[in-house]
Structures are given as C-alpha cells and as structure tokens.
Amino acid sequence: MSRPELGDVIAERELEVDGAGHAVVRIGRPTPDPRAGGDWRCPFQIIGLGDEGVYEAFGVDAVQALQLCLQLIDIHLGEQRRAREVTWLGSADLGFFPVVNFAGPLGDEGDSE
Fold first, then answer.
1. pLDDT, tens digit, 9 for 90 and up, residues 53-93
2. Spatial separation of the C-alpha atoms in residues 38 and 41, rounded to whole Å
3. Using CA atoms, how far apart are residues 92 and 57, in angstroms rounded to an integer?
4. What angle is formed at CA 83 by the lines to CA 78 and CA 89, rounded to 5 degrees?
C-alpha cells in the first residue's frame, strides 16, 4: 500500500521546539477518498519533529475529515511532547484541538417564549 500524498496545502502552523528550533504542521485539502465507501480524507504532515510522513484522517464529509484531522494532529504532537517542549506563540496550547463552549445562538440569553 502506498503512502498518502499531502496534495494542496490549505493551512500551515509553525511551532517552536525546545525554545530554539521550529516544526511546521501542514494540512492538505480534504478530498473524496479514492477508495470505495464514499468517505472523505484530510491529509497532514508534521515537519521537524522526526517522522515526516503524511497521515490522513477520514470523515463522512469534508468538514468532519478536517475536524478529525485537527484532533489527530493534536494526538501526534502529544506523543512528541513527551521528549521535548513544543509551543505555539509561547503557549503550551498548540491550538489544534478545538475547545467549544457553546451556550446557544448569539443573542440567546436562555429565555424561551
């Protein structure tokens, strides 16, 4: 089985490593999975932390594939962070795994009619 290709890069993030070096996370454009099943794939690559292979996350549509890609990036970086300090803009929060605090539609104060 061949390794996946990154394809068109839609986003990159540069991270600081051990306060001196850099790593780059590259996210490819979500595309339909060429294999049977109808799912979507979203590839990513982390450069500068060792294994620079291209990996994929899969979802039922492009949005889910991208969301799962961000979570998988967070998992991969978590494994790397055991051996080194990886930060983004000076913070340990690398900003890949979205934390959602949803209180309802804008302007909704919780009142019901």
1. 999 999 999 999 999 999 999 999 988 888 889 999 999 88
2. 10
3. 24
4. 60
For residue 66, give the 3-state DSSP assignment: helix
This prediction's pTM: 0.81
Q: Average of pLDDT values for 15-30?
A: 94
> For residue 21, what are the β-bridge partners?
17
Q: CA dist 99 to 27, 56, 57, 93, Å?
A: 19, 22, 19, 11
Residue written as token pair 């794939």: 41
The Cα–Cα gap between 29 and 43 comes to 7
CB burial readout 33-42, b (16+ within 10 A) else e? beeeeeebbb
* Token pair in block for residue 58: 């899969």
Tell which wins on pLDDT, 78 or 98: 78
